[in-house]
Structure formats: C-alpha cells, structure tokens
Design goal:
Length: 286
C-alpha cells in the first residue's frame, strides 16, 4: 500500500489561528482532503475557511478540547486510511508530500513524518545514538506532533490519549506504538517548516505562556505515571515540584508578578497531576 492524494486526509486543529492558518493551507495541494477542527465556538472563522478553500471540511467543537482530543475528533471524521496531523503554524515545502508518497510505497509503518528544516530543533527522538540515520528514510522512537502521518489500520481505533490536553500526547502515542512493535519513520527528503508556538494569535501570548507551564507540568507527571507507575513519577518529579515552589516564593517576595505566576502555574499543574486531578486548566482566549 502507498499513501496518495486520494487516500490521505490532513487534520488541522485550530484555535485563534486566523493570523497563521492561510500560510499552512496555501502550502497544501488543493486536491488533498483537509479537515479543520476549531477548538472553540467561532463559526465565522470556519465559514470563511470553507468558502476560501476547496476539499475542506470544518467543524466547531464548541469548547477547547486540546490537541489530542481535537485530533481524535478529526480522525473520527476522516474517511481515508491515512491521516496527517498538522499544526496550523507549519508550512509544507513543494515536495514535502510527494517525497512521503514515494517513501511509503510497500513500507510497513504506523507513523511517518517529514523532517524539520531547522537543524537546531530536530522533530524526532532516538534512544540509540548510534542508530543509522544516514539513509533518507530512517527509523526513530518518536516524532513531534506538529507533523505526522498515521496509518489508521495500525491503531485499533485508539489514537491520542484524551486525558492529555497538551504536551507529550505525541510521545505517548509513539511509545504505545513502539511497545506494540510498530515502526516510526522520518523521511529526510521530505522537509517542513514549523514556526513553533505560533498557532495561537500572539495577542494571547501571556495566557498561552501560563497554559504551557501548567500543562507541561501536568503532562510530565501523568506521562511518567502512565508508563512507569506512580512511585517513579512522584520521585522523578519531586525535584521539579520543590524547585518550582522555591522559585514561586522567591519571585513573590521580590514582587515580580509575571515570573511568580509562571512558577505558580507550574506548581499547580504538577500538584493537580500528583493528586490525580484531570488537566482542567484552560487559557482565557476571549
């Protein structure tokens, strides 16, 4: 089996992404099916997108589901064997997908991804530093979630963990597939640009920064607990908790409100995860 334009659907989860989404959509072949999942109640946004682009379906969730659950929503709506998870702050190169199409011919994979064009920030991880990555197509342990193509037949209809609002949902997905003996590949000939942390309008940068710190802390503990047990997660994250509490207190005494809030959110996210509370925090984007 081979990925083609006809058996691929590109899924993009958006929220307050009006300033960035056009660059992404304009870089995608117009003949390829696309699904936009807007994690809000913004019907005007998806109406404009639906009119402007062809071969596109748009859905409004009515609330902020997060990246994992939002992508799951889109995957369930897709009708093709292959789906590409794509962030709105990415831009495909001219041959990004064509190179993926060629590489996928008779390839046994669960996930395949293009390579980031920023060499300082590779979008993959390999535990074995001596592994062979000299070939254009090479196997990795995990890939970043901003660009990844999934073969839906490999997942038994279980994709991203809905409990993870953001951060490490892609690592969790990749680790689960590796445990099943499935293969994950990077294709060096296929390149992609990722702006990074630009998916949401910059006017909400303060709220997004608080949300990042809260959810990174929450997800870090949850991920370790899920895959290595509660005791391991607790003791491996304890230094982070103590350090964050100390810095929170330090910046409070110095009356540096911005830094105080950042560490306050780190403490809150980690503490909520430790006591088994859900990832309930949501940034204010209104």
């Amino acid at each position: 089996m081979q990925i083609t334009k006809d058996n691929l659907t590109i899924i993009i989860v958006t929220i307050k992404s009006e300033n960035i989404i056009d660059n992404c959509l304009n870089s995608i072949d117009s003949d390829i099916n696309k699904i936009i999942i807007e994690n809000s109640s913004n019907k005007d946004f998806i109406k404009k997108i639906s009119i402007k682009y062809k071969n596109i379906q748009c859905f409004v969730t009515g609330k902020n589901l997060g990246m994992g659950a939002g992508n799951n929503f889109g995957i369930q709506k897709s009708k093709t064997r292959y789906v590409m998870i794509l962030n709105p702050d990415t831009v495909l190169k001219k041959d990004t997908l064509n190179e993926i199409f060629k590489a996928s011919n008779n390839l046994d994979f669960s996930i395949i991804s293009p390579l980031s064009d920023n060499e300082e920030y590779p979008n993959y991880k390999v535990k074995n530093k001596n592994s062979n990555n000299e070939n254009n197509l090479f196997e990795v342990d995990s890939v970043d979630g901003y660009a990844m193509i999934l073969d839906k037949t490999k997942f038994n209809n279980i994709f991203f963990d809905d409990k993870i609002f953001m951060y490490l949902e892609n690592d969790d997905l990749c680790l689960r597939m590796k445990k099943k003996g499935e293969k994950i590949f990077i294709n060096k000939n296929s390149k992609i640009s990722h702006l990074g942390a630009k998916a949401v309008n910059e006017i909400y940068s303060e709220q997004i920064e608080y949300s990042r710190n809260w959810h990174w802390s929450w997800s870090r503990f949850y991920f370790r607990k899920k895959h290595k047990g509660y005791i391991y997660a607790f003791f491996s994250c304890l230094p982070l908790l103590l350090k964050s509490i100390m810095k929170c207190s330090f910046y409070f005494l110095l009356n540096q409100k911005s830094k105080y809030k950042i560490y306050k959110f780190r403490v809150s996210g980690l503490f909520n995860s430790i006591i088994n509370r859900s990832s309930w925090y949501r940034p204010r984007l209104d």
